[in-house]
Amino acid sequence: MPEPTPLMLESFEQLAKHRRSIRHFDPRAVADELLMRLLDCARWAPSGYNLQPTHFVLVSDLAIKMRLFTACMSQRQIVEAPTIVVFVGDRRAFQHNAEAMLAQERAAESISPEYETLLRRVLPLAFSHAPAGLGWLWKALLIPVAAIFRPVPSIPAVHQRFWLAKQVALAAMNFMLAAEAAGLATVPMEGFDERRVRRLLGIPRWCIVPIIVPVGYAADRPAGKTRLPLAGMTHRDRW
Ligand SMILES: Cc1cc2nc3c(=O)[nH]c(=O)nc-3n(C[C@H](O)[C@H](O)[C@H](O)COP(=O)(O)O)c2cc1C
User: What pLDDT score does 168 carry?
Assistant: First the structure.
């Protein structure tokens, strides 16, 4: 991979500012190879401890899309877009991915033995629900007490949905920007009944669905895009 250059920043600025939420799609399908390239960009998003909890469920079957449409508050883009990417967060990413991730990191020499030892100590503290699936409870009870004496970060085992939503959102944003770069259109969606979506798509009960992103070719683009001024949202040294 070449190093990024200042010219790439200009291209990125254009990309970020040009991306819009598109709600009307051309029926033209997106080539699977292209879709996989976009998902590959999503996969390269960062994640806490590199645990990579994000999964993608691709829906293009019309009968399934029609049922998804109902679960998504009848938002038309679900029917119009040729593919719907359901972004899923795996609550058991620690159990499912930690060893594979550590093995890869070791093979790539991207972690030192000392850091691996530290991770092996910290990860169970942060993620494990043992014993008896109630570990989160004693962690939740201990956090306010510990926080009196020392800084305590938010603990994924306790704030699971919050932790997962962050990881999945970063992957979804990578996906949407990659789609924009490929001349495709997307719209991020939170307007859906998560329980119905999970049941319809057979998503395991240990997963959550923070965001759904239809993808395809735009049939039309909305006019003018606005954002509040940067000065009003930037705080230096303190709020
Ligand atoms: C987390 C999230 C959830 C959203 N949910 C929906 C949705 O359910 N339906 C929809 O039409 N747009 C949805 N949007 C799109 C926003 O309305 C849109 O991003 C915003 O108006 C800014 O417009 P732009 O994306 O074109 O810049 C969502 C956006 C985000 C970031």
Answer: 98
By most ligand atoms within 8 Å of CB, the mutation choice from 177, 187, 212 for ligand 1 is: 187
pLDDT tens-digit readout, 116-150: 999 999 998 889 887 767 777 777 888 888 888 88
Which residues line the pocket of ligand 1, CB cutoff 6 A?
A: 20-21, 23, 75, 187-191, 211, 225
pLDDT digits 0-9 by tens, 101-117: 999 999 999 999 999 99
Q: Of the given ranges (3-12, 50-59, 203-212), which has the lowest mean pLDDT?
A: 3-12
Domains of the chain (ranges plus CATH)? 11-91+160-222 (3.40.109.10)
| Terminal Cα distance for the chain, rounded | 38
d(C-alpha 77, C-alpha 75), whole Å: 6
Nearest CA to 173 out of 10, 6, 41, 75 is that of 41
**Helix 160-181 vs helix 6-18: angle between axes, to the nearest 10 degrees?**
100
Distance between Cα 188 and ligand 1 center (Å): 5
Distance from the alpha carbon of residue 32 to the mean position of ligand 1, in angstroms: 25
Which contiguous run of DSSP H or E holds residue 55? strand 54-59
- Which atom of ligand 1 is closest in space to residue 169's alpha carbon? 1
Nearest CA to ligand 1 atom 19: 21
Which are the contacts of 136, defined by CB distance < 8 A and separation ≥ 6?
129, 157, 158, 160
pLDDT at 18 over 90: yes
Q: Are 49 and 166 in contact (CB under 8 A)?
A: no
pLDDT tier at 234 (50, 70, 90 boundaries)? very high
